[in-house]
Amino acid sequence: MCKIGSPLLSFLLCSLCTPLQTLEECNQGKYYEHYFTGTDRKDYCFVPLFDKPQYEKDKIILASPRLKLIFSASDKSKIGQIFYFAFIGMKHKRFPLPDQNSMILKKIVKVQEEVITSDKVIFRTVPGGGLIIREHFRENNTDNYYTINDKEFEEKAGDSLKRQAIYAGFAENEVQEIKIKTISGKKVVTRIYKQFIDISIGFFLIEAKPEILQYFYQVGVGGHSSMGYGLLQIIQQI
């Protein structure tokens, strides 16, 4: 069994340690500030996969000391290529972790990306992640979080996807066609920076132009996609 420190800290360290340190060292840190600082949306997402994790109050107990990280990025600006070569440069190096733990990047596998040709796709949130739908209020700097248990969920999720597509540069008339419908799933609670947040996991039907759906598939959807949330798996193109 492998024991790791606090659930939040260990989750973030295990999932962020490798990409963060790779960019610190890759090309003298040229890409670090762009991809790991600021509040702008990052065009990549990932999710860490633990081996049969048991979550306790102050630790996570794993069946084996192994961690898989699924990483996905947009084609634009060669983000995927930058990270890929950064990862290669860090293979077999030891990354220190709290509580006298450490992590070694042993294997990198490039997975063939599925090409979306339909304007309707059933997606599943990748296990270990989830969909965060947040509405931010600048007036008082507060947030509302919506899950599939809320009647406003599909409307708020659709608004979130539209904002994301606009930010990515897609045409306004195409963005307005985006729709999301819940097929099945449930609300779960996650913890980010000492705050408990409601998120949704399950199956969702998203309608949009194929190129927009491809973008969502590559970079994830919803909030905190660069912190381990929002990664999608294609179940069926309709």
Summarize the structure.
By secondary structure, this protein is of the alpha+beta class.
Task: List how many beta strands DSSP finds.
Answer: 13
User: What general outline do the C-alpha atoms trace?
Assistant: globular
Arithmetic mean pLDDT: 81
The proportion of strand residues reads: 25-35%
Give me the Rg, rounded. 18 Å
Q: How is the topology of this model organized?
A:
Elements: E1 2-4, H1 7-25, H2 32-36, E2 44-50, E3 54-55, E4 60-62, E5 67-73, H3 79-89, E6 94-97, E7 101-104, E8 120-125, E9 133-137, E10 142-146, H4 153-167, H5 172-175, E11 179-192, E12 195-207, H6 210-219, E13 232-237
Helix pairs in contact: 1-3
Task: Describe the model.
The chain is an alpha+beta fold. It contains 6 helices and 13 strands. Helix 1 (7-25) packs across helix 3. It is globular and about 50 Å long.
Keywords:
single chain, 238 residues, alpha+beta, four-stranded antiparallel beta sheet, three-stranded antiparallel beta sheet, 6 helices, globular, disordered N terminus
